[in-house]
From TrEMBL:
Domain of life: Bacteria
GO molecular function, one term: isomerase activity
Family, per entry: Belongs to the hyi family.
Protein name: Hydroxypyruvate isomerase family protein
Keywords: Isomerase
Keyword Calcium: no
Native species: Acidovorax bellezanensis
Segments forming domain Xylose isomerase-like TIM barrel: 21-263
PANTHER family (UniProt xref): HYDROXYPYRUVATE ISOMERASE, ISOMERASE
Length: 269
């Protein structure tokens, strides 16, 4: 059965971040993910995970200056030392949180950088990061992100991601397949799932409704069909609930929108 992880950066925004672990556990989640852990000590986050019986399944490596619009450093020439330092910091957190996966954001391609140079920089950085992560048993994830939400992002399509896996050539680098981004960039989700889930190169998945990025039972994607297909295709990983509740930050906004999840939790029991 599909296994769902609550994305604590987007869900439960009606309460403080550190209170979201308890809220997710109370709603029946066994696992969580979030964008960035670095504002909190890893020991504090690890204690919350233990307290609420949760597994940390994913977070992102440092993205550069997020507030200035940076969305990763992996493809940017001249930032290699900063990228390397960020990966070491992320790996430290992953060990403390017993988290098996780190998403490495590719970044926006600077206007003065050629596609070939961005590609070469990205491949070299991911190879170096994979070599750091492999002895620790940690998988690195690369995620295509649609160009509407993130203009200029280096990695936007599934075929590009899988070609990059071949170029990087590291067994501990996998694709993070976000069906929200995939629908916007490419569509044809069922066929994409059939094409890419076979072979074990998709290490993590995420979902949201399209076009609003709200609950998966809102919008144009029929997720019940896709969840059944994902199960039939033998995917055993986690599916991150990376969406913004349509009810916003009102009291119980996230919990009130989890009607789509209840049947799947009931089946898993």
């Amino acid at each position: 059965m599909p296994r769902f992880a609550a994305n604590l950066s987007m869900l439960y925004c009606e309460v403080d971040f550190l209170e979201r672990f308890a809220a997710a556990a109370a709603d029946g989640f066994d696992a969580v993910e979030f964008l960035f852990p670095y504002e909190h000590a890893p020991e504090q986050l690890a204690a919350l995970l233990r307290q609420h019986g949760l597994q940390q399944v994913l977070f992102n490596a440092p993205p550069g200056d997020w507030d200035a619009g940076e969305r990763g450093l992996a493809c940017i020439p001249g930032r290699e030392a900063e990228f390397h330092a960020g990966m070491e910091r992320a790996l430290h957190y992953a060990q403390q949180l017993d988290c098996p996966r780190i998403h490495v954001m590719a970044g926006r391609v600077p206007a003065q950088v050629s596609p070939a140079n961005a590609h070469a920089t990205y491949v070299a950085n991911l190879r170096a990061a994979a070599a750091l992560a492999a002895p620790l048993g940690i998988q690195l994830q690369i995620e295509p992100i649609n160009g509407r939400d993130m203009p200029g992002y280096f990695l936007q399509r599934q075929d590009q991601a899988h070609a990059l896996l071949d170029a990087i050539g590291a067994a501990n680098v996998q694709v993070q397949m976000d069906l929200y981004h995939c629908q916007i960039s490419e569509g044809d989700l069922a066929m994409k799932l059939r094409q890419y889930l076979d072979g074990g190169r998709v290490g993590h998945m995420q979902i949201a409704g399209v076009p609003g990025r709200h609950e998966p039972d809102m919008g144009e994607i029929h997720y019940p069909y896709l969840f059944t297909l994902i199960d039939q295709l033998g995917y055993g990983g986690w599916i991150g609930c990376e969406y913004r509740p349509a009810r916003g930050a009102a009291a119980q906004a996230t919990s009130a929108g989890l009607g789509w999840l209840r049947p799947w939790l009931d089946r898993a029991q």
